[in-house]
């Protein structure tokens, strides 16, 4: 089981272009067919990051079947990253190549939110519907992970980082450092703002070869304390990782989770990163594979 790194979506929560918006950015994206579904990322046939509202559509659109998926690493419970309806579709699976259960790894606050949500909806539906059915069938398991700890799952070594992207004032989003079976280390940095000293210290000497980072706001100038990144702050984040000794020689980065408040098209965003980033950066697109 090697790497099969692929973007199932590269858009932010509102999708790109926003279907409710006719601003020039969205209209230009429509004309250029520059479509970005909500962000998710395939690590290999058995492992992926996030399971949001567009995952099933992306699976069909890019011919990426999910029948072998066994582990999903959830960054946080915003619905563009964690969609219970799409998870529930597994109740209707017949033949499946992968093993049950599918394990969803998430933070302890995220798991607590999930349990509260299921308890709240059970009286409305006479049960919590397909998610409860999955649990009863042994087809899903939700596993809480501690921040800033290594664990093993799906043939990978995985390290978790808490970020300043907070859900409902209680749940810090997780970023993940993956050590792949061939030793390659990949940092999945979405959603997040600029890392603080704790995160940078934890990544010091990590030898990260691939950085997949959000770049939600692109051309927009964001304050340092923002819970998302713009192009300028992406460059600063990469420089901070470089200064911390976190990047391997020849490291490269990919930008995902882009919204329409970014006024650059892909070529303009790419040109900015080519000029300003300290390492090679590619603006990712839906369906893109990392070789």
Q: How many helices?
A: 8
Q: Which structural class fits the helix and strand makeup? A: alpha/beta
Main sheet?
A: 7 strands, mixed
Domains, number: 1
CATH superfamily: Ribonuclease Z/Hydroxyacylglutathione hydrolase-like
Q: Provide the CATH topology.
A: Metallo-beta-lactamase, Chain A
Instruction: Give the distance, in angstroms, between the N- and C-terminal Cα atoms.
Output: 15 Å
Shape: globular
The level of helicity is 25-40%
Determine the oligomeric state from the structure.
single chain
Mean pLDDT over the full residue set: 95
- Just give the CATH class: Alpha Beta
How would you describe the overall organization of this protein?
The structure is a single chain. With 291 residues, the chain is an alpha/beta fold. The protein has one domain (6-283): 4-Layer Sandwich (Metallo-beta-lactamase, Chain A). The protein has eight helices and 13 strands. It has helices at residues 24-32, 55-61, 84-88, 108-125, 130-137, 197-203, 231-243, 266-276, and strands at residues 6-9, 40-44, 47-49, 71-73, 102-107, 140-145, 150-153, 156-167, 171-179, 185-189, 208-214, 247-256, 281-283. A hairpin with a 3-residue loop joins β8 and β9. The radius of gyration is 18 Å and the shape is globular. The model has no long low-confidence stretch (mean pLDDT 95).
């Amino acid at each position: 089981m090697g790497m099969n790194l692929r973007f199932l979506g590269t858009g932010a929560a509102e999708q790109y272009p926003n279907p409710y918006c006719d601003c020039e950015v969205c209209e230009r994206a429509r004309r250029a067919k520059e479509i970005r579904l909500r962000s998710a990322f395939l690590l290999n046939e058995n492992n992926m990051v996030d399971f949001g509202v567009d995952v099933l559509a992306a699976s069909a659109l890019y011919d990426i079947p999910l029948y072998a998926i066994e582990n999903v690493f959830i960054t946080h419970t915003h619905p563009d990253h964690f969609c219970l309806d799409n998870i529930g579709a597994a109740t209707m699976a017949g033949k499946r190549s992968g093993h049950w259960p599918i394990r969803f790894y998430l933070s302890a606050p995220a798991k607590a939110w999930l349990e509260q949500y299921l308890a709240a909806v059970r009286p409305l539906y006479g049960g919590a519907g397909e998610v409860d059915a999955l649990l009863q069938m042994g087809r899903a398991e939700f596993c809480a992970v501690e921040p800033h700890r290594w664990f093993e799952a799906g043939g990978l070594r995985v390290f978790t980082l808490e970020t300043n992207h907070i859900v409902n004032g209680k749940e810090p989003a997780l970023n993940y450092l993956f050590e792949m079976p061939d030793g390659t280390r990949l940092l999945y940095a979405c959603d997040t703002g600029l890392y603080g000293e704790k995160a940078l210290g934890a990544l010091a000497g990590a030898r990260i070869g691939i950085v997949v980072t959000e770049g939600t706001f692109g051309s927009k100038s964001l304050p340092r304390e923002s819970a998302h990144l713009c192009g300028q702050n992406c460059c600063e984040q990469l420089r901070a990782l470089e200064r911390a000794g976190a990047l391997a020689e020849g490291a490269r980065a990919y930008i995902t989770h882009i919204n329409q408040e970014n006024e650059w098209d892909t070529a303009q965003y790419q040109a900015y990163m080519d000029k300003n980033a300290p390492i090679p950066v590619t603006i990712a697109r839906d369906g893109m594979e990392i070789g």
